[in-house]
Amino acid sequence: MGGTILRTENLVKTFGGLRAVDGVSIKVDERTLTLIIGPNGSGKSTLINVITGFLKADSGRVLFKGEDITNMPPNEVYRQGIVRTFQTPQLLKSLTVLENMLIANVHPGEGVISALRKSQWLETEEEYVERAWELLKFLKLDHLWDRPAGSLSGGQMKLLEIGRALMTEPELIVMDEPVAGVAPSLAHDILQKLVSLKEQGITVLLIEHRLDIVLGYVDHLYVMFNGKVLTEGKGRVGIERVVNDPRVAEIYMGG
């Protein structure tokens, strides 16, 4: 683990009179898998939407690698090195698995002038295809490369969305329920892939409800409730302490 790659400071997001995110301060260390949990309505999704620019904060700051990225639009957040995936994969279902991977990068021959200079972008195109193929093998989707994305199972679609995110060579992936609705065996496979990304220098921040499956894979755990951070734990001992915290049991039983 390295230093802190992402930090929020007293982040606030309101909707009318509701403080959906109420002074939240968290930090995510490099090359870790950080999990945010909490009952429905606790502010988790709003928090990651603010971090990734899909919603604007009312106050507070989001810092990425020490730089203030608060309220940058999603495309600028993406350029900083942060990508996100969604609970429902946002795929182009009529395109093949490989084509979905390749659209993650802007093709160097898409410009009016550059399209005429094939020799200048052909090598880059070949590199994109090679990277896509290696990622599909890593995700065990290479045998499905020519299938329409819409023909995949729910779990395979989530893997494909992860692969498309990796095509951009991000430093941080923010994920909304990556194993929701996925069979347990494939859910474990997805989480194992996420853990192995740490060895490639990639950091993962995720929301997930399936605690029985996900807790064994994470390095840092935050619990949110009513828009605030209720408690947190780091490492096996810290996470175990959070899991056994009576307040955490109470909010889940109450939620």
From TrEMBL:
Which UniProt keywords are given for this protein, alphabetically ordered?
Amino-acid transport, ATP-binding, Nucleotide-binding, Transport
Q: CDD domains recorded for this chain?
A: ABC_Mj1267_LivG_branched (cd03219)
What PROSITE patterns does the record tag this protein with?
A: ABC_TRANSPORTER_1 (PS00211), ABC_TRANSPORTER_2 (PS50893)
| Record Gene3D superfamilies | P-loop containing nucleotide triphosphate hydrolases (3.40.50.300)
Transmembrane stretches, start-end:
none
Q: Name one GO cellular component term.
A: plasma membrane
Q: Where is the ABC transporter domain?
A: 6-251
Q: Which GO terms describe its molecular function?
A: ATP binding; ATP hydrolysis activity
Give GO BP annotations, semicolon-separated. amino acid transport
Q: What does this protein do?
A: Probable component of a branched-chain amino-acid transport system.
Q: What protein family does this chain belong to?
A: Belongs to the ABC transporter superfamily.
Q: What is this protein called?
A: Probable branched-chain amino acid transport ATP-binding protein LivG
